[in-house]
Amino acid sequence: MSPPTSSNVGALSFADWMRSVQAQVEASLARCLPPGEAIPARLHQAMRYATLNGGKRVRPLLVFAAGELSNAPNARLEVAASAVELIHSYSLVHDDLPCMDDDVLRRGRPTCHVEYDEATALLVGDSLQSLAFDLLAREDFADCTRQLEMVRLLGHASGSCGMAGGQSIDLEAVGQCLNQPELELMHALKTGALIRAAVQLGGLCGEALSAAERDSLDRFAKRVGLLFQVVDDILDCTANSVTLGKTAGKDAAAEKPTYVSLLGLERARELAADLRGQALAALTIFAARGQRLVELTDFMTQRKF
Ligand code: GRG
């Protein structure tokens, strides 16, 4: 299927649109990752192993869906979406290491350090992260001001005041009893910051949004980031490892605080429904232009893996 363009995107069903964006991002990642035979071949093969052929590509989908609000060029969205997915892939590789979550299954396959080795997995994460910024800084991607803003935004979202900071809080929280605001802060950083960045990057790829539109989009991004995590916590204790493609029940086994451990399953489900409502309410300002974001919010609420 060819990539969606601003002229045909409205005509595609959500399922076709999603498949088309996923295929486009897969092809873009395959192109921008160094070939498996390029020296150092083992590292490059491991980078490709950790990034390609798997993953729902939720963050790239958010980039593309947010890009529809600002009539963003498809090629620019592809670069921004690929950069976010590289950061996400790096975070999963490092998260699975024995010094972090110590997991053996990811996207239905052995984790990167199991398939290769720990040192290689560490370098895979490092290299994927560097590649993300390399991609955003390439000269033909956009105008320099926009590129700088995107580099800064992604750097902030993935660093110690964003995803890596959230991971640090997560590691300290093992065996602790966090209250709801503390849990929310941890997830706003660990999972939410990159999801928020994906939405912001999509919004930045096209024509300038008004201040009111930017505020609404950011409100949406924060709510949908939290929604993603609440659903993840619910799936961790209701779905099995085969469906999830990762080890189910990990959080409870590791004595990690989650929305389910804090609120119970039913209230966690109610919270997910509330967050969905708040996310959709934030999109009303965009009317029909927000259609894909609305559909994507529902996909993120109803996902089974
Ligand atoms: C190591 C700096 C560093 C950060 C790690 C993302 C993360 C922070 C840890 C992952 C642990 C985890 C399972 C978090 C819950 C939410 C989450 C990020 C799930 C995985 O994302 P999906 O469902 O995965 O989008 P796919 O495989 O579909 O890409």
Q: Which terms would index this structure?
A:
single chain; 305 residues; mainly alpha; Farnesyl Diphosphate Synthase; globular; binds geranylgeranyl diphosphate
Describe this entry's structure for a reader.
One of its GO terms (molecular function) is metal ion binding. Belongs to the FPP/GGPP synthase family. It comes from Candidatus Accumulibacter affinis. The protein is an all-alpha fold and 305 residues long. It has one domain (12-302): Orthogonal Bundle (Farnesyl Diphosphate Synthase), CATH 1.10.600.10. The chain has helices at residues 14-32, 41-51, 58-67, 74-95, 112-115, 118-137, 144-158, 163-172, 180-204, 211-238, 241-244, 250-253, 259-263, 265-282, 291-302; strands at residues 105-106, 109-110. It has a two-stranded antiparallel sheet with strand order 1-2. Helix 1 (14-32) packs across helix 4 (74-95), helix 10 runs parallel beside helix 15 (291-302) and helix 14 (265-282) runs antiparallel to helix 15 (291-302). Geranylgeranyl diphosphate (GRG) binds next to helix 4, helix 8, helix 9 and helix 10. Geranylgeranyl diphosphate binds at residues 55-56, 58, 88, 91-92, 94-95, 100, 107, 163-164, 167, 190-191, 229, 232.
Quick structural overview:
By secondary structure, the protein is mainly α. The chain has helices at 14-32, 41-51, 58-67, 74-95, 112-115, 118-137, 144-158, 163-172, 180-204, 211-238, 241-244, 250-253, 259-263, 265-282, 291-302, and strands at 105-106, 109-110. β1 (105-106) and β2 form a beta hairpin.
